[in-house]
């Protein structure tokens, strides 16, 4: 070394303090990326984030302990750690997407390996930087500066990920971008502390090489994302975007031309049989005698349920509530979706609201004669609230005395306890419920639950509109449940005791 370590000047100390802020930011974002990818692919976000955070913190502790065995070449060690984090963290997202279709065990091996490696490397950074700053300031002052900047960096990272990185770059490019920031920190430290480095030129070239690599990944991120999505969805991806709320992907089979919509990795419909689902969702609740002037659709941003409701001439008002404005936009503008929904979102009777359904229904407004709940399956705690006792109670207050509600209720075969938990929760709020199911080639057996007050459901339902699948006889048969999907005793789902999404995970494991 050309200069003794004790000669760190104020400028160099400032660079170290800035580095602490940035590496803390990067560390928390890697944590959030891995937790988010796992939530998208495996569901149960509380479970995934809890495991990710727990193992990450554990790995940081291990990394901190390992750092005490390093030699006193603090600058060199810090730069090596940053280079390693940039490489591993930069590719973590795409590695997870590639591993997922192969096997669940392989995905979890990759996931936990990434958590432990990145966590350990992040844990090494703080002791190294504290030791460096202690050469200029007292140990007490160094620890105070390091920890305060570490917490500030974590705050910036945790806020910027959902508000900036995820909506603008998506998961794959976000990990590349954060890896790029790590390698920029390493490069700056190589230049600023070049007098302390024996192999300055080799380290600088290494940093520049990785910098170029990750920059290229950023510019070609769309191509890499498409590669990961093709690997994940198998079919051709014709539309993909990450919104502030969810990941929207539309695919098309190169052989059958079948088109599918995925939200957060979960299939929502297939063009091959979506008409069956939407006919069974909409027409039973719409065909029961009684007023149907005002109709509310919660979810259903694809416009397919609205297409079926528009078949009833006496409907005067349709309010459609979907939290994601991008879903409503592509349903109206993407040719494939617009062709399927027949331009339903442009109908004069329909008004679309880009709003959370829970908030919308809790606001004052008109009372509805028919309510159609077309939400995704309750695979996480955020969606759980839309199948809760509290939510149904709020809907009941916004229904006319003759009003009728229907909810898609997952599969009574694959998620039997979930289906009957939804029925049990509706039965807790309303006087009468009616359960039924149908067969969908893309999903298997699928179930629905209706609920109303005061009046019992009729023994038979007649349909006076054009359908492709649903008939009076098939609806009558749909009300009969075989022994293996018959009703089971479950609890009532509520916000205070969110049982439903736990049942969803347990049912899938069974």
UniProtKB/TrEMBL annotation:
Against Gene3D superfamilies, the record matches this protein to: Vaccinia Virus protein VP39 (3.40.50.150)
Could you list this entry's UniProt keywords, alphabetically sorted.
Cell membrane, Membrane, Polyamine biosynthesis, Spermidine biosynthesis, Transferase, Transmembrane, Transmembrane helix
List of residues binding spermidine: 278, 302
- The active site of this protein is located at 374 (proton acceptor)
Catalytically driven reaction(s): S-adenosyl 3-(methylsulfanyl)propylamine + putrescine = S-methyl-5'-thioadenosine + spermidine + H(+)
Q: Which terms in the GO cellular component ontology are assigned?
A: plasma membrane
Record-listed S-methyl-5'-thioadenosine binding positions: 246, 322, 356-357
**Which Pfam families does this one have?**
Spermine_synth
Residue ranges occupied by any PABS domain in the UniProt entry: 209-453
**Which CDD domains does this one have?**
AdoMet_MTases
The residues that cross the membrane are 12-34, 46-66, 78-103, 109-134, 146-165, 171-193, 200-221
Q: Which GO terms describe its biological process?
A: spermidine biosynthetic process
PROSITE patterns attached to this UniProt entry: PABS_1, PABS_2
Query: Predominant location of this chain?
Result: membrane
Localization, UniProt: Cell membrane
MF terms in GO: spermidine synthase activity; thermospermine synthase activity
Pathway note: Amine and polyamine biosynthesis; spermidine biosynthesis; spermidine from putrescine: step 1/1
- SUPFAM superfamilies of this UniProt entry? MFS general substrate transporter, S-adenosyl-L-methionine-dependent methyltransferases
Identify the enzyme class. Answer: transferase
Partners and quaternary state?
Homodimer or homotetramer.
Query: Which PANTHER family does the annotation name?
Result: THERMOSPERMINE SYNTHASE ACAULIS5
By its UniProt entry, which HAMAP family does this protein fall under? Spermidine_synth
Q: Which family does it belong to?
A: Belongs to the spermidine/spermine synthase family.
UniProt-recorded name of the protein? Polyamine aminopropyltransferase
Natural source organism: Saccharophagus degradans (strain 2-40 / ATCC 43961 / DSM 17024)
